[in-house]
Amino acid sequence: MSEPGDPLAPWTDRLLRLGDGVPPEAARSFVHDLHVRAQADIDKERAEAEFEREE
After folding, report:
1. Terminus-to-terminus CA distance in the chain, angstroms?
2. How far apart are CA 17 and CA 11, in angstroms?
3. Which one, of 52, 51, 1, lies nearest residue 25 by Cα?
4. Lower CB count within 10 Å: N or C terminus of the chain?
5. Which helix (H) or strand (E) holds 8?
């Protein structure tokens, strides 16, 4: 399941250990979507902070 250098692999593996019956593809998709959303939130916060500093 895990590929070397894959930053999502540890989180996918951890999610799979939490419960039985979760397909690996579904776990990977969930972790990917969560990562994308978290990164978007961080980028938004950075942009807002930079905008505030420029004013």
Report:
1. 48
2. 10
3. 1
4. C
5. none
